[in-house]
Amino acid sequence: MCESFRAARSACWEQGAAAAAGGGGGRSREEPGAAAETLGNSIRSASQASLHHPPAQPRARRAPELTYGNTLMRLDFVWLRDHCRSASCYNAKTNQRSLDTASVDLAIRPQAVRVDESTLFLTWPDGHVTRYGLEWLVKNSYEGQKKQVMHPRILWNAEIYRQAQVPSVDCRSFLETDEGLKEFLQNFLLYGIAFVENVAPTKEDTEILAERISIIRETIYGRMWYFTSDFSRGDTAYTKLALDRHTDTTYFQEPCGYNNYDRAVINTVPHDVVRRWYHAHRALTTELRRPENELWVKLKPGKALFVDNWRVLHGREAFTGYRQLCGCYLTRDDVLNTARLLGLQA
Ligand SMILES: [Fe+2]
After folding, report:
1. Distance 315 CA to ligand 1 centre (A)
2. Dihedral through CA 131, CA 5, CA 108, CA 49, nearest 10?
3. Residue 177 shares a structural domain with residue 257
4. Residues 191 and 309 in one domain
5. Torsion over CA of 73, 67, 83 and 132, rounded to 10 degrees?
6. 237 C-alpha to center of ligand 1: Å?
7. Helix (H) or strand (E) holding 169
8. What DSSP state is assigned to residue 106?
9. Are 137 and 169 part of one and the same domain?
10. Dist. CA 309 → ligand 1 center (Å)
11. 18 with 44, same domain?
12. For residue 18, how far is its CA from the centre of ligand 1 (angstroms)?
């Protein structure tokens, strides 16, 4: 059964269910047991999949399977009907679904199924025909997606980061070329920090830099914050004191992470559990303060640092003298969106 529907090169449709899997024919047929017997060892058979179903309804529940290239995709008829990309089901201009998913019969089965080298054709009981490009299916099916991992992240400490010799991206290349921006974002996704150098050291130029990647997120600190050690905001950041490792804005609805400075009174943990909280806090703090886990960077005028607050903490040593620093918060969705537009898997 499988062999007869193997496409000229690499696609193989395996249904193991009541609906037809014919070469373009519109009639249904039953071939009990055929699926398990004809499939090779390398392909998981429909009958194996059915082992997970109650014996009373094994055949009706079997997932249709499609092999393309090296990917075995286990599909579902309702899913296949729901994701139909025909003009009446899907508006390709707006990328929006026109089909009312709730109107799909949850027991729907196609009258006919056919697969050629590049396309899967399904004819539904009402005559509607759905076509799927096999490339599209591989990209969008569950099994295909599983193979497509997120952009890799490197778990690093100071030594690993130094050895990697991650280059800073030049400001001009960052602002004027997609390659420069992509290189920067790739580093940012890999390590959770990335640098741009040769930035004109002004608030305005830093703002232009930020806007190259994302929408700037306004907060109670303003759009661009600009701080010196004048305590103007009533926050430790605006002093010369050391700042322990932390992430920012933990008190927002979309918080960035851990911050001992802004931690509220612990009043949601009962007395007999609160000591465990402190033990956990101590263990975490010990890890965070290990010298090998810290990268010390002297920020000079013109060097901009981007930090992924979901991954990397930051802090500073106490200092003397006059220091100016400006920056802003970016919206995470837009940073990741920019990365995706450049072809990165963010
Ligand atoms: Fe901070």
Report:
1. 7
2. -120
3. yes
4. yes
5. 170
6. 7
7. strand 169-170
8. T
9. no
10. 9
11. yes
12. 61
- Give the torsion sign (CA, 330, 333, 339, 345): positive
Task: Tell me if residue 216 falls in helix, strand or coil.
Answer: strand
Residues 139 and 164 in one domain: no
Question: What's the gap in Å between 249 CA and the centre of ligand 1?
Answer: 8
CATH of the domain at 119: 3.30.2020.30
Separation of CA 307 and ligand 1 centre (Å): 10
- Please identify every stretch of the chain with a pLDDT value under 50, giving residue numbers as ranges: 1-9, 16-60
Distance 158 CA to ligand 1 centre (A): 19
Number of domains in the chain: 2
What's the gap in Å between 298 CA and the centre of ligand 1?
Answer: 15
Structural tokens at position 24: 């373009």
Q: Are 157 and 191 in contact (CB under 8 A)?
A: no
Determine how β-strand 90-91 pairs with β-strand 96-97: antiparallel
Neighbours of 16 (CB within 10 A): 27
Strands (E), 30-118: 65-68, 71-74, 90-91, 96-97, 112-115
Q: 311 C-alpha to center of ligand 1: Å?
A: 13
Domain boundary residue, one of 147, 176, 202: 147
Res 14: pLDDT: 64
CA of 304 to the centre of ligand 1 (A): 15
Å from CA of 248 to ligand 1 middle: 5
Domain span including residue 233: 158-341
**Which pTM does this prediction carry?**
0.68
Residues 234 and 125 in one domain: no
Please tell me the distance between residue 259's alpha carbon and the centre of ligand 1 in angstroms.
9
Centre of ligand 1 to C-alpha 19, Å, is 60
Alpha carbon distance 202, 194 (integer Å): 19
Residue 238 Cα to ligand 1 midpoint, Å, equals 10
**Cα(261) to centroid of ligand 1, in Å?**
10
Task: Map tokens 């060097």 to a residue.
Answer: 303
Distances (CA, A) of 184 to 27, 178, 312, 346: 56, 10, 16, 13
Secondary structure (3-state) at 13: strand
